[in-house]
Amino acid sequence: MVGQVVDKEMFLAGFDLNEDSTASSSDLFNVTLGTNLTAGKLHSVELMGVQCGKDCYSISIASALTFLAGIYQVMMAVFRLGFVSVYLSTPMLDGFATGASFTILTVQAKYLLGLKIARHQGYGTVAVTWINIFINIHKTNLCDLITSAICISVLVAGKEIQERYKNRLKIPLPTELIVVAGATLASHFGELNSRYSSSVSGHIPTGFIPPQVPNFGLVSRLALDAIPLAVISFAFTVSLSEMFAKKNGYTVRPNQEMLAIGFCNIIPSFFHCFTTSAALAKTMVKDSTGCQTQVSSLISALVVLLVLLFFAPFFYDLQKCVLACIIIVSLRGALRKFKDVPAKWRASRNDAIVWLVTMSATALISVEMGLLVGIVFSMICVIFKTQKPKVSLLGRANDTDLYEDMDEYKNLIPPPRVQVFRFQAPLYYANKDSFLKSLYKAVGVEPFLEMTIRRKAEKKAKDMSLKQAKANGDRNNGEVVIGLVQRELDFHTIVLDCSAIPFIDSTGMACI
User: Fold this and answer.
1) What is the DSSP code (8-state) at residue 38?
2) CA distances, 32 to each of 37, 40, 437 (Å)
3) b/e sequence 442-466, b meaning 16+ C-beta within 10 Å
4) How far is the CA of 171 from the CAs of 33, 128, 244, in angstroms?
């Protein structure tokens, strides 16, 4: 999402987004926007009295956007809006994790084959990426493919050993570290990049850019774009937190998380960082390696710091496919949830449908839209369940005061000439009509239809009695006949069992 906002603002500012643009395309761009991209010097924009080029302007947009998103998140934490996390149901979170894992696998698949394919931006990343992979499959780099097969085999074997003998092992096996070290040495001394054109990490810049205050002149232009970014960033982080909290047995406080992630956006925005959010791939790598406390994050930060300052040149020959293998193997747990779909369907079709819709939307549209679709669809399912709740007529077990559903249990005796009706859902304005329809259907009587039938029968009887009275000269006989026209019902009383109704609003009370 940050990249989309940056691209939009760069385009509006007149920058050419095509890195490999030709002269003709640049001329067309100039004519269309009335700007000058190629006439002697690069296009620039003035920010805070300084001429800013393409890289400078894009970093300024990202920093300002990050600052705004952090401000919004801190405000949401102050107003205690973390309650929105209660709408993140377990089936939705599982489906989201599986869909996001499949998206990550898709993005990393090209590195396993050594294909140079531009990363698709926007919706439909999975479909577009796989189409491009199959179109370019004949360009597969055999060196990368063989390296990927070896690395995945070693990593999977290490994970299986770790899971099988985890009670005997004192410390987790450093399989990933061994793979990275071995692959880097093999690539360096085997000259895989120069001899087989294997894709490597290449030059990694060292050092830091001096801190700078975000450009507040861009705030008004980015105010609206930062709102969905802040909300989705928080929802994404909390959803992953809830997922791993359930797995590892701890609780999450949404407002605290929102405050933390807010400051994790405000402070880094002064250091040219972009919006912070939880990362599924990195979190799964940490979880799979046995990390349990914040010490792991401190060590990771120190390692990144050392790499940025000193060790980056040593990873020049590390193949990209090796990193992709580590990420893909760490996704095994989430991808295994595909095997649980039949069990989910048997246990609860509603939960299975929520899982499938969320997973499909996340994988086929985008991760952000998948999360939004999952939340909305889960809420729609809850509303639908109140519209079509389970209803039943109750019967009494022999020689007890226990009443249960007569469709589910045998040998239950209904009270004589009494219908006991149970409605298992809230009774409120949105489902009052459903309540009445289910009640009428269960007892077999439609009051308004019954009244209409009786009125017609009474009118018909009255007409017949009047005709008979005229013929016999008796004027009171008609009233007697009308009183005798009644339809006998199987019951005289309906008892409502409200024990399964969590709440009733004023409309529901009026309905009763």
Assistant:
1) S
2) 12, 19, 63
3) bbebeeeeeeeeeeeeeeebeeebe
4) 61, 42, 21
Q: Averaged over 283-307, what is the pLDDT? A: 78
Q: Is the pLDDT of residue 21 over 50?
A: no
Under the banding of pLDDT at 50, 70 and 90, the label for residue 435 is confident
Contact 147, 322 (CB under 8 A): yes
- Please tell me the distance from the alpha carbon of residue 406 to that of residue 501, in angstroms, as a whole number: 19
Terminal Cα-to-Cα distance of the chain (whole angstroms): 50
The answer to whether 76 and 258 are in contact (CB under 8 A) is yes
What was the pLDDT predicted at 439?
85
Task: Tell me the whole-structure pTM to 2 decimals.
Answer: 0.64
* Gap between the Cα atoms of 237 and 385, Å rounded: 28
Model confidence at 35, in pLDDT bands (50, 70, 90)?
A: very low
Q: What would you report as the CA-atom Rg of the chain, rounded to the nearest whole angstrom?
A: 34
* Amino acid sitting at position 411: N
248 or 496, higher pLDDT:
496
> Which amino acid is residue 262, in one-letter code?
G
Taking the C-alpha atoms of residue 240 and residue 283, their distance in angstroms, rounded to an integer, is 9
Q: What is the dihedral of CA 404, 409, 412, 415, to 10 degrees?
A: 40
Answer whether 91's CB lies under 8 Å from 354's CB. yes
* Helix residue spans in 388-495 (DSSP H): 432-443, 447-472, 477-484
The token duo for 102 is 């499949």
Instruction: Output the six-digit token pair for 42.
Output: 């690069």
Q: Does domain 390-511 have CATH number 3.30.750?
A: yes
Taking only the tens place, the pLDDT of each residue in 384-408 is 888 888 888 888 888 788 888 888 8
Query: DSSP class of residue 277?
Result: -
Q: What is the mean pLDDT of residues 163-185?
A: 80
pLDDT in tens, 57-115: 888 888 888 999 899 989 988 888 877 766 777 788 788 878 888 888 888 888 888 88
Domain residues of the chain, as ranges? 84-253+272-384, 390-511
What is the DSSP code string of 289-325?
TT--STHHHHHHHHHHHHIIIIIGGGGTT-BHHHHHH
Cβ atoms within 10 Å, residue 3:
13
Q: Where are the alpha helices (DSSP H) in 191-218?
A: 192-196
Contact between 321 and 112 (Cβ < 8 Å): yes
State yes or no: pLDDT of 478 exceeds 60: no
pLDDT tier for residue 16 given thresholds of 50, 70 and 90: low
β-pair type (390-396, 418-424): antiparallel
Amino acid at 139: K
413 phi and psi angles, rounded to 5 deg? -110, 120
Q: What are the Cα distances from residue 316, in Å, to 188, 191, 199, 205, 320?
A: 9, 12, 10, 11, 10
Q: How sure is the predictor about 37, in pLDDT bands with cuts at 50, 70 and 90?
A: very low
Report the 10 Å Cβ neighbour count for 6. 21
